[in-house]
């Protein structure tokens, strides 16, 4: 990208849970914006969003929306990305796409800036943001991968409803009230918006995020498997995932078992994690200090705690990894990629 | 035990979350009771509990409370059990203890009737009920252990607040209302009643149940490790656990990775689980059928689903195990043990 003092930025999916955080971060980070274009479906056309003291009117996203745009941050679902992103890339803008549409495309870099920043510059117009549950896990694994190598990962997730969008947040709140008031519970969104069968999330744990694949794993689980291998550029890493939605609004938590390729010293592991960019270690069992979803909400970092030697495998350890799924898990990772491109623009 | 037509039963901890379920089950199962004695701390003395159309007045539990008692079901915490159970056992009654006080005592059988019923009859007056999170896991593992052998287990739990008692249930409900109303959240009980630092459970996930041990694991996690080995009578089984409290009222869920000692056929595994006593398989991904905590609440069985081949280890599989922690995880397992003793009385 050619260096400029300011860039034209489009946010596609501007009314969504992630889109709102993208706009918030562009403002908070003082991103060098010339013109901000907020795009959404025709339903949201005409709505007004404040940005740096001005009102920005939301426009309908069409193939013609992207003239003069430098960065297009997409978070409007896979279908929209698949349809629009190729037009945008052709027009010369860089698409940073938060959907699942291009993540496994061999011509599309899948990037976490702290983990594989070199991939950014191999793009052909589209860069994919990994899945939220993958991003925070690979952030915690990166220093271990670099120093010891990783043989195997077994992860179980505790995922917030905001990962399923604003409607899912409202559903959790409404259902919670209904349960507390002894009323009948209404179900319309979770576990998967596009599927007919709905489940109660309030005061429950749903072991389904996204659709099932033939192997009995969900797409969300397979995203963690496939994306981890792609991000590390290492298909030999073994990954097994169980992805579970729990009644939390913001912040995914993960119970991660990691088998390293060699023996390790626990203190060294903790030091490596402490010095990893974007990672914060909160780990003092005697003071009952460990990461919590409610504490991670609104923060940009990935929080790691409960770091402990496995009881059985000499090369393995267990840890608890928490991050705001809408921020580092989505909007912040996307904005970071754009900032990285600007930093390297000539 | 000598066969009688009816037995004198004491419930110690009669006002607690588990004690209430014990009383409920004794009534519902039509347990052959001559006299029911309800015991609790001095605080609850004089309270009245209905049982089969009569009122039973709660008495204070003392060493003298157990004359003529045949079965004493304890669920009043480890301290009460440690203090009173030896007196009770001496008086000739059989103590079935739901606390952690005697579980690892080599002279005390640790029993899940479907898993190791033969241990019941080795008792010397005290039989221990395993921890709730252990019971449901070993129920799902038993048929696999018998047919294939088990090399290793890695489990992450999603545990309901009722496991921490009635006050924790109230705390979750109160905190949920406070969050929904935008009020300040009051914290008094969780994660561990006896520890000074409290954490919010509403809309959160707390990776601490019970106190920490020196190895960085919590006591709850080590209970799963130690009790599983004792129940199967096999110290070679490798177990790693991460125990997490989530905002669910009734029903623990568990993400269980199991490495068998030999290769297996997935259909055979499902058939074995389907024919296991006390186990119900709910597993149809395409119909979005899998066990859920809110569905397991109030039921006696252990529900297993999401049964799938591990992607990496040829002998491993993953599953989702759910059960009502107050019932099979506590009160029902205890009542079952008593029923088993009666069935075999001569």
TrEMBL record, chains A, B:
Signal peptide: none annotated. InterPro entries: Asp_semialdehyde_DH (IPR012080), Asp_semialdehyde_DH_beta (IPR005986), NAD(P)-bd_dom_sf (IPR036291), Semialdehyde_DH_NAD-bd (IPR000534), Semialdhyde_DH_dimer_dom (IPR012280). SUPFAM superfamilies: Glyceraldehyde-3-phosphate dehydrogenase-like, C-terminal domain, NAD(P)-binding Rossmann-fold domains. GO terms for biological process: 'de novo' L-methionine biosynthetic process; diaminopimelate biosynthetic process; isoleucine biosynthetic process; lysine biosynthetic process via diaminopimelate; threonine biosynthetic process. Residues 8-123 form the Semialdehyde dehydrogenase NAD-binding domain. Keywords: Amino-acid biosynthesis, Diaminopimelate biosynthesis, Lysine biosynthesis, Methionine biosynthesis, NADP, Oxidoreductase, Threonine biosynthesis. The gene is asd. Coiled coil: none annotated. Its EC number is 1.2.1.11. It catalyses: L-aspartate 4-semialdehyde + phosphate + NADP(+) = 4-phospho-L-aspartate + NADPH + H(+). This is Aspartate-semialdehyde dehydrogenase. Substrate binds at residues 159, 245. HAMAP family: ASADH. SMART domains: Semialdhyde_dh. The active site is at 132 (acyl-thioester intermediate), 252 (proton acceptor). Catalyzes the NADPH-dependent formation of L-aspartate-semialdehyde (L-ASA) by the reductive dephosphorylation of L-aspartyl-4-phosphate. Homodimer. Phosphate binds at residue 103. Belongs to the aspartate-semialdehyde dehydrogenase family. One of its GO terms (molecular function) is protein dimerization activity. Pfam families: Semialdhyde_dh (PF01118), Semialdhyde_dhC (PF02774). Gene3D superfamilies: Dihydrodipicolinate Reductase, domain 2, NAD(P)-binding Rossmann-like Domain.
């Amino acid at each position: 990208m050619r260096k400029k003092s300011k860039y034209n930025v489009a946010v596609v999916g501007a009314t969504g849970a992630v889109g709102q955080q993208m706009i918030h971060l562009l403002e908070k980070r003082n991103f060098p914006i010339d013109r901000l274009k907020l795009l959404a479906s025709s339903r949201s056309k005409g709505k007004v969003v404040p940005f740096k003291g001005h009102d920005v009117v939301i426009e309908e996203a069409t193939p013609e929306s992207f003239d003069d745009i430098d960065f297009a941050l997409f978070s409007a679902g896979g279908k929209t990305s698949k349809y629009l992103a190729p037009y945008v890339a052709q027009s010369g803008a860089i698409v940073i796409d938060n959907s699942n549409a291009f993540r496994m495309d061999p011509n599309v870099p899948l990037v976490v800036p702290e983990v594989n920043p070199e991939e950014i510059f191999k793009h052909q117009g589209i860069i994919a943001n990994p899945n939220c549950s993958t991003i925070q896990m690979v952030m915690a694994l990166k220093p271990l991968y670099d120093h010891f190598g990783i043989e195997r990962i077994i992860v179980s997730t505790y995922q917030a409803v905001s990962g399923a969008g604003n409607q899912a947040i409202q559903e959790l709140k409404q259902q919670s009230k209904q349960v507390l008031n002894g009323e009948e519970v209404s179900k319309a969104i979770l576990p998967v918006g596009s599927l007919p069968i709905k489940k109660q999330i309030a005061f429950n744990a749903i072991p389904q995020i996204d659709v099932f694949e033939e192997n009995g794993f969900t797409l969300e689980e397979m995203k963690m498997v496939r994306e981890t291998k792609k991000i590390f550029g290492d298909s030999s890493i073994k990954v097994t995932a169980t992805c579970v939605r729990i009644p939390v609004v913001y912040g995914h938590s993960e119970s991660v078992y990691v088998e390293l390729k060699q023996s390790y010293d626990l203190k060294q592991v903790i030091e490596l994690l402490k010095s990893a960019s974007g990672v914060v270690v909160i780990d003092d069992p005697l003071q009952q200090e460990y990461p919590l979803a409610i504490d991670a909400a609104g923060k940009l970092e990935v929080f790691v705690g409960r770091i402990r030697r496995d009881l059985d495998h000499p090369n393995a350890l267990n840890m608890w990894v928490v991050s705001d799924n809408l921020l580092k898990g989505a909007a912040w990772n996307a904005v970071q990629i754009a900032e990285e491109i600007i930093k390297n623009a000539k």
